[in-house]
Specification:
This protein has 573 residues and is an alpha/beta fold. It has helices spanning 3-22, 25-51, 59-77, 81-86, 88-112, 117-137, 139-142, 163-186, 188-196, 200-204, 210-236, 246-259, 266-280, 288-302, 308-315, 377-384, 407-412, 430-435, 445-456, 471-484, 501-516, 528-534, 552-556, 559-566, and strands spanning 155-156, 159-160, 339-348, 351-361, 366-370, 392-397, 400-402, 415-417, 489-493, 520-524, 537-542, 545-550.
Amino acid sequence: MTSLQRLLALAGLAILLVLPHLVGGTYYVFMLIIVFIYSIAATGLNILAGHGGQFSLGHAALMAVGAYTSAIVAQALAGQPFLAATGLHVWIALVIGTGAAAIAGAVLAVPALRVKGPYLAMVTVAFGWVVWKILQEWVSVTGGDLGISSIPKAQIGGFVLETGHFYYVALAFFVAALVLQHRLIASPLGLRIRAVKHSEIGLSSVGVDVYRLKVLMFVISAAFAGCAGGLFALQQSYISPDNFQFFSSVFLLLAVLFGGPGTFLGAAVGIAVLTMLPELLQDFDHYRLIIYGCFILVTLYLLPRGVMGPIEGRLRAPVPAPAATVPARATGPGNGAAVSLDGISLSFGGLKALSDVALAFEPGKVHALIGPNGAGKTSLINVLTGFYQPNAGTIRIDGSPTRLHSLHVSAQHGFARTFQTIKLFGDMSVLEHVIIGLPADVADPAAEADALLAFVGLSAYRGQSASALAYGHRRLLEIARALATRPRLLLLDEPAAGLVQEEIAALATIIREIRGTGVTILLVEHHMDLVMAVSDRVTVLNYGQVIAAGTPAEIQSDRRVVEAYLGPGHVHA
């Protein structure tokens, strides 16, 4: 956080502290408390949807879980003299309500996050409807349509917190929510949350279990919503199913989109505007909803990043330059994997992508895989990285049979890859792309990442958004990210595609230097000059079958390869 950002944060907090004394009466103080409470829930939704790209329309239901649990527990504990005298019954109830919402979030997330996009939103809508019906029908517990009344108010010792005092409690929880959001998004976990929004496959390729990450995101977001629901119950002293209808979920998501998804204050600004604006439009009576709707639509059209997107973009701290000259290096000490495939077959319906493929990769060597389009080269890489499960055959790593269940499991075995279609993380910085691939035990992630960027020649771009890089530089960034995982086997899927001649020559140098560290390399490439210049051994696929294998010179002289792929111009005597 820059000095200007700290100054603005302190000024904003000072204004909020004195605001109750500046507005007349308790009504607007009450409205501000509601803004704080809903901002806590919206901040949690911003972590999930704004930063993580997982949209939910069930957060009002999670608020309901927190509210009803807090209310029921608070009433039950109020009968304990010590807890009632100290006020602990209320705060214990709030903690339990928050935990109950987190558990409900996990229960929702485990099945829901196996789908994406609109299907995920539909599942969360169904969850919200189910919770709402339970609140209506489980009368003995929830009170049904009549709700729960006489909920104990928050108190400290024997001092009951009325509206003017509860304002500062709500403010404290709101500030805590913002601080937690900031610390989370600035952490290594936060980097992964931001990355999953742009490329789940790219994130899996560096060893992250994306499904577990998304479930964790949902649990964190649900805890925020549950805490907000608990505070709402304590403030209102009465709750009913009408407080947590579907529209409330839409309201929370709309606030995130309006304020600025993925921004620090966007969710809170969205809640404040969308809550206070109808109050300011009371004089327009019949036209209030029309004006309200048009205002939102026009704002979203003119500011697709939300109200706070452009503002926080200008205030964002620049990525500092490296502290000193960084030595260029590829990976740590060489420990290349010996990998063999025996009888690998893969079919898609009636189409055979691979048929009884047998290959062996020596440690610390460059093995090229060539062949015409549709020969099965990328399919073989996908089998080696767990993206596809073969129908038959065995993969051995250092002589031991291994089953690679998924892309992240493959990465955990030391297999890193680049992609034919580049998989980067949107507007995250070049430096962040490399840091995200580093192991958790790295003492100085920035220094390690800088070394890898220097190795691939991208040091000058470390603070830039990856989306602003030239195409060739994006290819190099993918290689740097893969190397950050400290791979034993590096799989390069057409790394020269789209590069100009000078970039291809630089790529050849990088591949040779990686080989020099002891890493085993599998290179899938159509650029034959690059293949022949860097490869120790070449295997040729055609129609999913190995038709030749040998040194580059032997392959160029093989008549079957010439006829199937290279053409007569590549025949060597």
